[in-house]
Every structure is written in C-alpha cells, then in structure tokens.
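Researcher: We're teaching a course module on how sequence relates to structure. For the next exercise, students receive a sequence and then see the predicted structure as tokens, so they can try to spot secondary structure elements on their own. Here is the exercise chain.
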Amino acid sequence: MLQTPSQAKALETARSVFADEIEALESVAASLDESFNQAVETIAAIKGRVVVTGMGKSGHIGAKIAATLASTGTPAFFVHPAEMGHGDLGMLTTADAVIAISYSGKTDELRKVLSPIKRLGVKLISITGNATSVLAEFSDTVLLTPISREACPLDLAPTNSTTAALVMGDALAIALMRKRNFRAEDFALSHPLGSLGKSLTLVSEIMRSKTEVPLVSLEASHIEVLETINAKRLGLTTVVDASGTLQGVITDGDLRRAQIKYKQEIFNKQAAEIMSTNPKTIKASAAALTALKLMEEHRISSLIVLDEAAKPQGILDLKDFLKAGLL
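Model: And here is the predicted structure for the students to work with:
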C-alpha cells in the first residue's frame, strides 16, 4: 500500500522518537551507580509506605510508579505536592520514605515541601536530571536521569526525561520484587480480578467444604443413595469405605443405567453394586482452571476433591466457577 508524503513523514518521526528515547535510556542505564542500590536498601528497610510525589508530567509518572510499586509488593501511593502543602503532608509517617520526581529539581510546588518532609525525619529519594538542584541537595539518595535533550523537536515537552524517570521507577520496583522474592502467587493477591489472579486461583479457594460433599457407604441402600443425591442437589454422591476413603461415585446416570440393568431388583442393591469406580478427582492445591479443564474434557459437572489419604475433602460444581468469575 502506497503511503502519502505526510504518512511517510509521520512514520519517520515515530521512528526518530523511538530512537531518541532508546538512546536516552541507554545513557541513563550507563550512569547507574551505587545510589540505586542505596535506594533499594532504603525502601526495603522501611516499615511504612513509599509516598511518591511530583508535579505536572512528573506527577503522572509518579502515579504510575506508585501503582507499580504497590502491585509488586511495596506499599505505595501518590500525593500531589501542592496538596501535600495544604494538609496531605499529614499522610506521611516517620516509618515512610518519599520518592520525589522533578527533572529540573527546582519545581516550585515540590521545593516548598522539601523542608517539612525532612523535618519529619522521612528518607527522601529523588529522581532528577539535575545533580546540583535544590531537590538533589535535600535528598538522602539521588537517582540521576540525565539526558542530552528531549525527543520533542522544540526540546521543550517532557519526553525523554519522563521516559527515563518512568523506567527508573520500574527498575526500583523490579529490584525490590527480586530482593523480597515476590512470587506470581503474591502478585495475584493484589490482582484478584486480573487474568493472572484468576489463573492462580486454587481449587481450595472455590470448592465446597467437606460437609457439603454427598457421601454414602459401600453398604448404603438404593433409597439411601437417592436421598443423599436429592439432599445435596449435585446429581451425584461419593461412595466411601469404612475408613472414609473414596471407592466410587454414583450419578443420576448411574442410577438410570442400574434401573435398566436390574429392573425391580434395583431396590435390593447396595451402593457398591451401582457405583462407577475410578471417578475423576483433583487435589485442593491444584489450580482451579486445571480443574475446570478436566471437567470440560470429561464432560462432567462436578469434581471430587481428595486429600492426601484419598478421602473426599470437598467438591467442585460448575456453579462454583461461575461464582468465582472463572467461567
């Protein structure tokens, strides 16, 4: 497909911006030093939260950094520097740390709250491109993000500088994740409605408890089987031996087939003579989506959950997946 001159120019501009920002990031990466380790250690050691602040475009970057920290195991939130000077400074405690973002390091709204922050005895980490700025001077740790110019053709709109600050924040979050051995399971706890959270949901979290499992003995009569299935309303009952170990299952389908096979004699049959052996089962520690896949493959609407001794400890029904938002 032929491009118009304006379309070609737009693509050329886009590639130029990507190249400019990549170059800026490579420059900042090369300048990383022990200050980064110090920032990681400072944040890892605090008992409170990380409070991120910044003005304008830096504020937007700060909000994203706070969100990334919070979702990866480091409690954090964003506070606007102007609001901080009008009461929100009360959100800080001596157990917290502050990350202040300003490329120039001279942003007026931020400069005015530096002294109050330091009076609280709070550790201050700055992300700035200016090592001699007021912000850098007040900071306990300075994470420098120097760039030669912005990607903006006027060298005015924050582009390379905000990208560098954003990636610095991401680097802090990932370094802290690794230091804390933050796992996918931990991530899922703060993302219960996300696809990852759903994929890590365990059978134990959505299964019905042991008291809700329909259960009869091997010697149970036909009427006992019927009464149990009717009472639990799952269309089946488990069959266990004297020790409580699973031996089989009787479904509505098993009852119909037994009725055809035994006719009037069905009323004299015990559970052991009607049940199907080797029913599909799963462990409580398995992923719920693994259980759902098993049920779909075998076209069953209920799945028995067994403990380590092969005794029923729960049961899953398709409605349980619906309730948990997994179906």
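Model: If you want an answer key for the exercise: The domain at 203-323 is CATH 3.10.580.10 (CBS-domain). The mean pLDDT is 91.
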